[in-house]
Specification:
Two copies of one chain form a homodimer.
Chain A lengths: L15 H15 L6 E2 L11 H14 L16 H13 L9 E4 L2 H7 L9 E6 L3 H9 L3 E6 L18 E5 L11 H14 L2 E5 L25 E6 L1 H4 L7 E4 L5 E3 L5 E3 H12 L5 H10 L2 H28 L3 E3 L5 E5 L6 H12 L1 E2 L1 E2 L10 E5 L4 H14 L3
Parallel strand pairs in A: 1-13, 3-4, 3-5, 5-6, 6-7
Antiparallel strand pairs in A: 2-8, 7-8, 9-10, 11-12, 12-15, 14-15
Chain lengths: 401, 401
């Protein structure tokens, strides 16, 4: 056999959520009658709004008729009708991006993972810790050096830049997965200034922007001055519109962003990303794009807002229970995630096992998101209302509250 | 900005088909009344069979109801119902693969491009030339050394191994894109023996298997003895079932295939590919998977066979016209592609311009597929019947035949 990419051997054997699924499945096999409530993986549970389903079915019907059949997309980066709908969505919260700056993909995870292809392997990557595992794993796979900015109780689990640290590629996520914390415009401005001083790029994951309720929290990094000179934004319909099983995301690359190659030539980042995608991706399913565009219609936005409000109410229920138990947490407001300190100074995986076996509730061990996650735990508000209430009752009972 | 992956600067600026689209669009702008017939990109034109559309719409409906809503897939490698359907399809032409060995993806191009992530950058890659550009481009992006096996008029544009050449990763495609040539079982056995002697892996692209009509041409490399010890197969529903705009493919990795890491440990290739996909991919849209599974039902197979027969008849029309003009070609039988020598010893791009401007027919210049493609040209049989006839009449008129 050829030589393996040995960088893979430096990774955890499995992606975090595959490990959790295996643990839960093993528990279920041993306890077939257990009534398990899943609040681990950040997966939505409400069905997709009817206006979106109807748009998908209309798109499917078009594929069945010769005159309206769609084959390959010319660009593979999304149909204009969808890119225009997304640009209109940005405009609704006051941000101007051009449709041509939007690249449609099968999801934020794919873009987050694949974007690393366009960067040299000798760049230094800065990741706030704890973080969504994809930022670290995808860079370790390429053999890049990853350094960390600590998010912890002291900074409200929202790390800020350290002027003494040099980095080339910076991953930020706000509202944060897993900590639920958010950056204000002022805080993002500090990161932007830091990136520009370092000649670095910010890869900004805004997958949870739809959960922002407070006015001073930007829905996009491009709402902040200077971001167009140093940032790429990756977003998704997964959490905005329940698309985890539908698969559609998008990446915004400002037209002016460019690399300086070693021979001194300027190379536009959008062009290099297009080149990467041109060889390794072939666009998103047409009926999925029809569905995605329907999300951004007046009726679509109305329907998804109801779903988000439902999840936000769940978040409040979780937060209230933690308040009752006197447990420290971040998130829950502006975010579907609640990040809390494990009771009795338990380790993350220790608490995972306890919560699973004693309360039959699945969460995500904070340690799976990085060293600052040890001793912390993540619950999601994406569950069913009754099950969320039931889970928190079981949690409180377990804690004798 | 961070450092660019300088390997991108070694590539052609654009993916081949994006260049062609740009040229055609420019011609169309200058000649708005031109009635252009597109036989360039290998894109299908017949609509998707009704049984497949209905399955997709049923899947979409399930996404709109809480009880049947699907979020993330646990594995991200395809639902069991689809993997079992694909395994059954393999069985129908006498090949045994396990459902768990099948990894569902958004298309063969994605898998072809992304599979390189799991290999060390110091492997030597052998590509038959001419070839589908993705094999070369995706490896150049990683900085790998690519060497070529010449496909030419002498070997019927079906390169065979050279015992004096050492390689670690071998790309084969049969029926071949772009040359339409096919490997017999005996020829594939020679490649397998060569791979095993070199301790190499074969990445076998079988995207066009559904066009095979002759009995002695394998539909899968796994029909040939020894392939399970040295081959990965990548296939797609794009050409089998008109899925170019629906996006679904699959990769078969035999369970027994493993790397030997530098520390001597055995690492299963399926596990490493799963790790790659776990971090950089999130599965195929559920309604698309429903549609894909319907392709492999009795009714689905019946309907796609009709479509393939239609394209095969187009291929005959093209081949007959070339015969009339006395032009050398390969393909057209067992393949939707016809690969021919440009008349009057013209260069590929020269002939592209002539055919576009004088006959308003778009094809693909052979030179875009590699050095052995210079002076050759590819036409596809995926067009409309009447338009195919019309295109060949224009071609003959242009040649004064």
């Amino acid at each position: 056999m050829p030589k393996i990419n040995e960088n893979f051997l430096k990774l955890e054997k499995n992606y975090l959520f595959i490990n959790i699924a295996k643990k839960v499945n093993a528990y279920k096999e041993a306890n077939p009658d257990a009534d398990i409530i899943r609040m681990g993986i950040g997966d939505v549970t409400l069905p997709i709004p009817s206006v979106v389903i109807e748009a998908m079915k209309k798109g499917a019907d078009e594929m069945g008729v010769k005159e309206t059949f769609k084959g390959y997309e010319d660009s593979g980066a999304g149909y204009d009708f969808l890119k225009e709908a997304i640009a209109g969505y940005y405009k609704s919260f006051g941000v101007d991006v051009l449709p041509e700056e939007i690249r449609v993909s099968d999801g934020a995870k794919s873009d987050c993972g694949n974007i690393v292809d366009i960067f040299g392997d000798d760049n230094v990557v800065l990741v706030t810790d704890p973080a969504y595992p994809v930022y670290v794993d995808s860079n370790l796979m390429s053999g890049r050096k990853v350094i960390y900015a600590d998010s912890n109780k002291e900074n409200g689990f929202a790390a800020m830049p350290d002027e003494n640290v040099k980095a080339d590629i910076i991953y930020l996520c706000s509202p944060n997965n897993p900590t639920g914390s958010v950056y204000t415009a002022e805080q993002l401005k500090q990161w932007i200034d830091y990136a520009k001083k370092n000649d670095a790029i910010i890869i900004y994951d805004s997958a949870y922007e739809a959960f922002i309720t407070e006015d001073n929290i930007p829905r996009s990094i491009f709402a902040v001055e200077g971001a167009r000179e140093c940032a790429i934004e990756i977003c998704s319909l997964s959490k905005t519109a329940g698309f985890t099983g539908m698969r559609c995301g998008y990446t915004v690359i400002p037209n002016e962003l460019k690399f300086k190659a070693s021979d001194g030539t300027d190379v536009y980042i959008s062009q290099i990303w297009g080149r990467r995608q041109g060889s390794k991706f072939n666009g998103v399913s047409y009926p999925v794009q029809c569905a995605a565009a329907a999300v951004f219609t007046e009726k679509g936005l109305e329907q998804i807002k109801e779903n988000i409000a439902y999840y936000q109410e769940n978040a409040k229920i979780i937060a209230n229970a933690l308040d009752e138990m006197g447990i420290f947490y971040t998130g829950g407001k502006n975010s579907p995630y609640i990040w809390f300190k494990c009771p009795d100074n338990m380790g993350s995986w220790e608490f995972f096992d306890k919560l699973l076996s004693e309360a039959n509730v699945v969460g995500t061990p904070g340690a799976g998101f990085g060293r600052n996650g040890e001793g912390y735990f993540r619950l999601t508000a994406f569950g069913d209302r009754d099950r969320t209430i039931e889970a928190m009752q079981r949690f409180k009972k377990m804690m004798n509250t």
